[in-house]
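Dear U.,

Please find below the material for section 3 of the report. The protein was modelled together with S-adenosylmethionine; I have listed the sequence and SMILES used, followed by the predicted complex structure.
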Amino acid sequence: MTPFEYSHKFKKLRYLGSFMGRKLVHTNLQILYHCNFRCRICGFWHDFYQNTARLSLNQVKIISEKLNQIGPQIISIGGGEPLLHPEIVDIVRVLARCHFPVMICNGWFVTERIARELFSAGLDEISVSVDFADAMKHDAQRGVYGAFDRAVHALQILHANRVRPDQRVHMITVIMDDNLPEVEPLIRLCRKMGITYLVTLYSGSRGAKTLRPPVSDPSALLRRLKRKYNDFVALSGYLAGFSAAIRGEHPNRCYAGKNLCNIDNKGDVSLCIDTIHRPVGNILNEEAGAIRKKLVAAFHGNSCRSCWTSCRGSIETMMYGKAFIHSLLDYYRMVRAIEL
Ligand SMILES: C[S@@+](CC[C@H](N)C(=O)[O-])C[C@H]1O[C@@H](n2cnc3c(N)ncnc32)[C@H](O)[C@@H]1O
């Protein structure tokens, strides 16, 4: 076994322990808010955020070490546009020592060189956002001409430049009021490229779009598509929650604070990305144990059920869902190695 394989296995074992103990296992990390896109579903490109600082490499090191005291995390690196951070490769390398870094990007800045560097640094998974199969609609939604073409090209480059078979490349779509019919053509596009497909549900607290009630039953449609295409790898249990969530009738409580959390560009820790304006503490200035306790206290006091984004829904499905074995098989499809 190489030293890398040994430390990767050790990380996985520790993660499994945290998962079985239902501890904190997923952290969203906004390393900066700068963005070259002007998405209708997101407000982070407004002046209020654009004039704020980014996390330095040294601050990311501190965050990584403190999180490691709580337990290894899947760290979802986002923003803003994470590839605008000049130290992004080193950030991935630092996080990969103790955690599982994954990333969501808009695809604009992906080149062969950056793809190879990110994967060599230890990135486990990368998703590129694509919301419509129609290029003009995607560009309009993202506010930048050429966004669709660059995103699709990025997916091809990323898939071709992986350095380990278990590094996965996904397309991810935010399901909104007007793009359900786009899902099947997008899955077909992924199939052609040899990559896989994920969805997340629009959260109304961040964007300018309305949460119009669906004309059909989105859960039924999405689950039918999942049965039809094995390239569609979102968890069935997660998809099952879409219809109720859109109707505002989600039955379950939210486990943010207990199993997942958010850290922003100042090191402020909140339950989730929708509550960054109500931090429970700051991980750069406080001990890891104190942060964990504050998160758990906030979890107990939280009655919010308003979103059903994939970070929340996937963890809830895996940890608390009824069909654990089925979800495990589903999860395997999401992370299984795909030949280089
Ligand atoms: C905030 S973005 C940051 C990464 C990158 N700039 C991008 O566009 O992919 C991370 C993910 O959240 C999604 N997103 C943005 N606004 C959202 C909202 N209001 N509800 C749900 N997902 C949202 C994006 O489409 C993307 O898939």
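For the text of the report, you could mention the following: The radius of gyration is 19 Å.

Regards,
Y.
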